[in-house]
Write a structure and sequence with these properties.
Structural class: mainly beta
Mean pLDDT: 78
Helix content: 10-25%
Strand order of the largest sheet: 3-4-6-7-8-9-10-11-12-13-14-15
CATH topology: Porin
Distance between the termini: 7 Å
Strand content: over 45%
Length: 327
């Protein structure tokens, strides 16, 4: 394959993201900005990189499998560069796409989700007892809703841009520490892509990976503070969040079964509110080729809040496909 430079990949990515942001539909809508249903997918993609690559100095990376598709950072050396460019498309049913407790906005709908994602692994550096690898992630996801007349009236479609920089310190026996800084911005598909919500999130996570035969497992505990700006009222959603995630990767033939659970506790700085949230997911992926995968999945999400009328339960069930370009 023709050699592709870091700058050309970054340029193409930014052009695609910009063109997606300029896409126009109709009016905006109201939703729960402090609930991020895509967070677990982003986590699993990053975790798969760590799980499969086993980052070491002068060691090439293996294929990493995750719910967003096959991804292979290549030829990552002491001062080398590894990267992948991936695309995924999902179509699913949600019984509560706005994540609300009840009332006008508790409706069911179909959702078509399309994303482009890049990870740039900027080498592996020996720190005498640990390995340090900086990782830059750039992704954009577009959400289009269908199947309900009120969807057309409320026009819930939006796009989400995510930037993340992480420094991964890998130790022996599967342990790693991951300080990171993430930025998320949601845009309406109307009014010249006006911004609906933004979030800046410094965080620190401790992870443990281990294997039982061919079965891989992970546990991840994270601490984060989210600095927010939303249409609800500036920094009203600023919050401290701690979360524990545990999951399994069970391969058989060309399939991989990936159950996981995530429990989080959020405390809000500018309002009297504490939330307990949970996600339970069941994923089944089928790897057609080295660069294409199909997936079916179901996710149960719930939140119990100290503030009245802020609880919700949500079930998403669907299928998807992903493509991965390797350079």
């Amino acid at each position: 394959m023709k050699k592709v430079t870091f700058s050309s990949i970054l340029f193409v990515t930014l052009i695609v993201v910009q063109s997606m942001l300029w896409a126009k539909t109709n009016e905006g809508f109201s939703r729960q900005y402090d609930y991020r249903p895509e967070t677990i997918d982003q986590y699993k993609a990053r975790q798969a990189l760590l799980r499969k690559s086993n980052i070491k100095k002068n060691q090439a990376h293996e294929i990493a499998k995750s719910d967003v598709g096959l991804q292979r950072p290549v030829e990552t050396k002491k001062k080398g560069l590894g990267y992948h460019l991936g695309f995924s498309s999902k179509i699913y049913y949600s019984n509560n796409p706005l994540s609300t407790e009840s009332g006008l906005y508790k409706i069911s709908a179909g959702i078509w989700e399309n994303s482009i994602h890049n990870n740039f692994l900027l080498g592996a550096y020996d720190l005498r007892g640990s390995t340090f690898s900086p990782l830059i992630g750039i992704s954009y996801t577009s959400f289009s809703h269908f199947g309900n007349e009120s969807i057309r009236k409320q026009n819930m479609d939006f796009g989400s841009l995510n930037l993340n920089f992480a420094g991964i310190f890998s130790f022996g026996n599967g342990w790693s520490v991951r300080p990171s800084l993430g930025y998320t911005s949601d845009f309406s598909h109307k009014s010249n892509s006006s911004q609906l919500y933004s979030q800046l999130s410094p965080s620190l996570a401790l992870s443990k990976n281990f294997s039982i035969g061919k079965i891989n497992s992970f546990a991840d505990w994270s601490l984060a503070y989210n600095f927010t700006d939303s249409e609800l009222g500036g920094d009203f959603l600023d919050r401290f969040e701690t979360a524990l995630t545990w999951g399994l990767f069970i391969p058989f033939s060309n399939f991989e079964f990936s159950p996981y659970v995530r429990v989080s506790l959020s405390d809000y700085s500018n309002q009297s509110k504490t939330d307990l949230g949970a996600n339970l997911g069941l994923d089944l992926s089928y790897n057609i080729t080295e660069w294409m995968a199909l997936r079916i999945y179901s996710t149960l999400s719930t939140r119990r809040s100290s503030k009245e009328n802020m609880d919700f339960t949500r079930v998403d069930t669907g299928t998807g496909a992903s493509l991965n370009a390797r350079f």
